[in-house]
Specification:
alpha/beta; 7 strands; 15 helices; globular
């Protein structure tokens, strides 16, 4: 893609052209070398809006919760971007698109853009190119950008690399508190949500979380609040959005917002800088080296040296 074409795509996407926006994101997803140049041109063009990560295990109602939040945000004049990370289809390699189906009510609204992305086997709850796509949405003046993680693992820790506010969603009967603590939820969460709070044991789940947070003596500063919601009916959603805004105001007033943004940009810089090394670290060359080791044609230590030499050749 020439620079002129990329600038035109960016301009038309910023003006609301969904086809141009879709093409920009597809290029970032499919060509990391091209995304580095594209992001370099776009950086600084947007309003640097807030990002909100929605984290939780499958079945807790993350997509329904995001849809309920869109019911509030879609009436505002701001542009709302949603990046929904779905597990990869074993047949097509693409996303299952379950999130788009559940958010269909808001998908056609002019100030709402929803994009479903496949994990493509990437661990940590995000897709491989999610951080770069979030930067594209920021530059195009989407504020807020909501990232719904896949929820495939114990805890989607990578969301910290892209989100200013992390909302962890659980449901009544969510399990042993020790296991949840081990999963790292206490360290990740800025806000806890007990969804499906009309079910039995909802109050017990809230008490368990509040007790765990009280025992978390390593935490400094603001203690996450626990919000009860019934996303399917909209109950508690306004309170949740108010708490998200309160947390964002807290980040700004304490200077932590700037620190989180520094870490996010450091992640982007590191990822884009590593693009040049991908030919060496891609599966093909490494698997070939591994095959030589298995065939006893190359010692493991020698294979490591060969990989290092290949990297040095790129510097």
């Amino acid at each position: 893609m020439t620079r002129t074409h990329s600038q035109e795509l960016f301009r038309t996407a910023r003006d609301g052209d969904r086809r141009a926006l879709g093409e920009l994101i597809s290029r970032v997803e499919n060509d990391r070398r091209e995304s580095a140049a594209l992001l370099a041109e776009m950086h600084g063009a947007g309003v640097d809006g807030f990002t909100v990560g929605i984290v939780g295990a499958p079945g807790v109602g993350k997509s329904t919760l995001v849809g309920a939040l869109l019911g509030i945000l879609a009436t505002d004049r701001s542009r709302v971007g949603v990046l929904a990370i779905d597990p990869t289809s074993p047949l097509s390699g693409g996303a299952f698109l379950g999130d788009l189906i559940r958010m269909q009510t808001h998908a056609g609204q002019p100030n709402v853009f929803i994009r479903s992305m496949a994990t493509r086997g990437h661990q940590g709850g995000l897709s491989r190119s999610a951080p770069e796509v979030v930067e594209v949405l920021r530059a195009l003046r989407f504020d807020p950008v909501i990232i719904e993680t896949s929820g495939a693992g114990q805890v989607d820790v990578e969301v910290r690399d892209v989100a200013d506010t992390v909302v962890v969603v659980v449901v009544p009967g969510w399990g042993d508190s020790i296991q949840v603590a081990k999963a790292g939820l206490l360290e990740v969460a800025d806000i806890f949500v007990v969804n499906k709070a009309d079910q039995q044991d909802a109050l017990a789940a809230v008490r368990d979380l509040e007790r765990m947070l009280g025992y978390d003596r390593a935490r400094k500063g603001r203690v996450p609040k626990v919000i009860r919601t019934v996303a399917a009916s909209g109950a508690g959603i306004s309170e949740l959005w108010g708490e998200i805004l309160a947390h964002q105001a807290h980040l700004v007033s304490t200077g932590e917002r700037l620190e989180r943004r520094r870490r996010q940009l450091a992640t982007i810089i590191r990822r884009l800088a590593m693009v040049e090394f991908e030919p060496v670290w891609s599966d093909g060359p490494l698997i070939e080296l591994a095959g030589q080791v298995l065939a006893c044609r190359v010692e493991l230590a020698e294979a490591v040296v060969k990989a290092k030499e290949a990297l040095k050749g790129l510097l």
